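Risk register update: the risk of archive-format incompatibility is retired. Evidence:
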Amino acid sequence: MQKRGMWKVWVLAVTLVVLSEFLVGFSAVEGTTEVLQVPILMYHDFAAEESDYTMSGERFRRQVEALVLLGYETVSFRQMLEYTDGAGELPEKPVILLSDDGYTGVLTTALPVLEEYDFCMSVAVIGELVGMDKGEHPHFSLEELAAADPGGRIELVSHSYGLHRMTEEMTGAVNLTMRAEEYEQLLRGDFAAMGELFAAEEVRAERQADTVHRLTEEVFVYPFGAYSPESEAILAELGVRVTVTTDIGVAEVAVGEGLTLLPRVMAEWMGK
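Archived output:
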C-alpha cells in the first residue's frame, strides 16, 4: 500500500477508536452479564465516485482496512440473535456493516472488498424496489444476489415493503394522522407483502427458502429511522425481534436481552 493510502487508513482508524470510546467506552460487565458493544455502521450505495448517499469503493476499502487494523470482525444479525439466545458466540470486537435500500452497488463495488477481507454485510432491502434496475441507483434482484454472492456474505433484512416514503399520513413506519386500526392494518399488510415477495422471488430464482441468507421477517430497519411505541408493539406481535434506527450510538448486546431500537454509526460521515 502506498504511504499516503496507509496514512489515510491510520487516520480513519484513530477516528473510529475516538468515536467508539466517546459513544460507549469499553465493553462492560453488569453483574454476571457481559455487555458487548457492537457498532452498526450505516451505508447506502457504493460506486466508483462519491455522491450523495454513495460511498466510493476506495473510501469503503479504507474503512474496511481500518476496521481490520483495529481488530474488528464483521458479524451478521443472525449471529447476534444466536448470541442473545445463548446459542452462539461473538468475536471480541464485533461490528455490523449495514447498507440501506438494496442498491446494485453493494454487489458491484462493496462485495469484492468484503470478499478480499473475509467480511460480511447486512442489506436492508425495500421490497417494492427489489430488482428495479432503472435510474441512477438501481436495486439488485434476488437472482443477481445469488449469482454475485454464492458464498452468502450478504444477509438480507427488511427496510419495509413500501413504507420508505413521507406522506401526510405517515413518515416511514410511523403513524401521523391515520386511525389506529387503519395504521395497524397497513403495517401488518406491509409485513405480509414483504413475505409474499420473497416467497415468489425464491421460487423464480429456483432457490429454497432455507438457503437464502435473509432475516426479513425478524429484522426491521426503520425507514428514515422513524419509530414509535405503536410501531414497536405491532412489529413485536408480528415476530420481529430486531429493530434498527438512525439514532447515533453503538448497540449494546447481552445474552438474554432484547435487540430493539438499536442505534447506528454513520459510516458515510467518516474518512472523507
